[in-house]
Specification:
The complex is a heterotrimer of chains A (about 120), B (about 170) and C (about 100). With about 120 residues, chain A is an all-alpha fold. Chain A is built from four helices and no strands. The longest helix of chain C is centred in the C-terminal third of the chain and has 31 residues, at about 55-85. Chains A and C meet through helix 3 of A and helix 3 of C.
Amino acid sequence: MPGTYIPSEYLPVLIFIIIATAFGLGALVIGTVFRPKKPYPDKLMPYESGVTPIGEPRYRFSIRFYVIAMLFVVFDVEAVFIYPWAVVFDKIGIYAFIEMVIFIGILLIGYIYAWKKEAFQWD
Amino acid sequence: MIPELFFAYFAFAIVLFSIIVITRKNPVHSVLWMLLLFFHIAGLYLFLNAEFMAVMQVIVYAGGILVLFLFVVMLVSLKEEIKVARFIGAWPTGFTFAVALFIVILMSLRSFVAGPQGKYTIDLIKSESNIKVLGKLLYTDFLFPFEIASLILLVAMVGAIVLAKKRFKG
Amino acid sequence: MVPLNWYMLLSAAVFTIGVFGFLSRRNIIIMFMSIELMLNGVNISLISFSHYLQDMRGQILAFFVIAVAAAEAVIGLAIVIALFRNKATVHVDKINEMKG
């Protein structure tokens, strides 16, 4: 059975999260408590530089956002695979280096495919 | 005392948030509660001496996959989504099955015997950081799954581009 | 010192909540999120075992689970988008015909 493990070097992170959350929530709550509340229909309409809004506030969301986010996820996972290698690659010999080259090479094939299929083009 | 307190908070928050995630009407709310859930899971990993897993959870899951979910929710969003029924007609069956599964897992926990202890004690991992121990294992002993993971990522990229591009014209 | 059984209970709870969400929701994107919830429940179990048995293999398996879950989310959501293009709905009880 292992002993008790307390990640005491992450205490600043915890304090930071608590202060940031308190700051954000506090600003919202204090605003809700202290501001005057006198709504009328003209004030509640969505703002459109002074004119009355026409049409729906929704446009066709392009597929390009999904393709960009998808490419980000795949290359993000690749980067996360490279992080542990980067800290120990001088200790694990030449074979680990060659294998990482193979890993990046296989993903390079995917990158070239995405390039040729114009996944990186915005328009 | 302190680890039990933190575990109690994390466990309560994780179960509460996962129940909230699956019962929201608005899918955007579900995604945002799931973000909070992933941060709590990452905090739990920190208490289990797995700092790199906590960081990977935040970077990949909270920072990549949830953004993907949010984009797709925006893409397929309907205005009346919050007014239609959330659950399908047969949801009591699903609930019964889930409760039965939980009871079965609980029964199997009573006869659980832990295996032998390994050699990666807490002090050994703290002497050089968790990421270095992970790196040394990953690229020497677990090399084959690592290369297969690159193929899986390649398949994911190619498949998603094929499925999401515009159709052929003509 | 938190006993291992509590972590296994937590993992079982998160997993069964994910199972319930997968079996009962109409919106296919929430079904996907329930799958991610199930995978996270399993990850909690793996990493807690890795801590208690002082072995690193649990963390390595959890590492690969996260990577494969990312790839699966990518392709699954691309399928959802293609499905939405053809049927204009994301409610699974309306996607019950292969014609058209």
